[in-house]
Design a protein that fits this description.
With 181 residues, this protein is α+β, with helices and mostly antiparallel strands. The protein has two domains: 97 residues, Orthogonal Bundle (Topoisomerase I, Chain A, domain 4), CATH 1.10.132.20; 71 residues, Gyrase A, domain 2 (2-Layer Sandwich). The protein is 57% helix and 16% strand.
């Protein structure tokens, strides 16, 4: 494996880490934020679409998010996607408007947010491990000596360990933040 391929793996793992960071940022614990709903994907028009492509998301008050769905026929799908997301939200639909009240942060809600954060972390770890597997398979395809192969595999494993460590530290920090608020 060349240095270029290792950099490619690092870039791909970095993208998985960026997605994880965005998902964690969506876990708003103090006040409502449009970013809270960004990870939600809706089944609409026969395909999966980000919720932001189906309507305007606004925050009319600190404990309420409103989604003005552009096509009223898709409001039920938006409501269902929000309800079935792992965010523990209970939306209410009024025509093309979907209101998402945010519950108070009691101990049960904090535990739920921690579970969601850990779910996001596990998804990120899985993505990193898939990229690691791709790198290891490429090493096996290359015509390398035993020492070169072991060195390359070690480099890929070190990169993987570093990325997983970053995921773990970020989810731990977010968990502490959720428990503090």
């Amino acid at each position: 494996m060349t240095e270029q391929r290792l950099q490619d793996l690092e870039t791909r793992m970095g993208k998985a880490l960026d997605v994880f960071r965005q998902e964690l940022a969506g876990l708003r614990i103090g006040r409502a934020s449009a970013g809270l709903l960004e990870p939600i994907v809706v089944e609409a028009y026969g395909q999966r679409m980000p919720i932001a492509q189906l309507g305007t998301i606004s925050v009319p008050s600190p404990r309420l998010i409103a989604i003005q769905v552009w096509d009223e026929s898709q409001a039920a799908a938006v409501e269902k996607a929000v309800r079935e997301s792992k965010l523990g939200l209970n939306p209410m639909r009024e025509g093309a408007l979907v209101r998402v009240p945010l519950p108070e942060l009691n101990e049960e809600r904090r535990a739920e947010l921690v579970r969601v954060a850990h779910h996001y972390a596990e998804q990120a770890r899985i993505a990193v491990r898939h990229i690691r597997r791709d790198g290891m398979e490429q090493i096996k395809k290359d015509q390398l000596s035993e020492d070169e192969r072991k060195a390359e595999e070690s480099n890929v494993q070190d990169l993987t360990d570093r990325m997983v460590g970053e995921i773990d530290s970020q989810v731990k920090a977010r968990e502490e933040e959720i428990r503090r608020v």
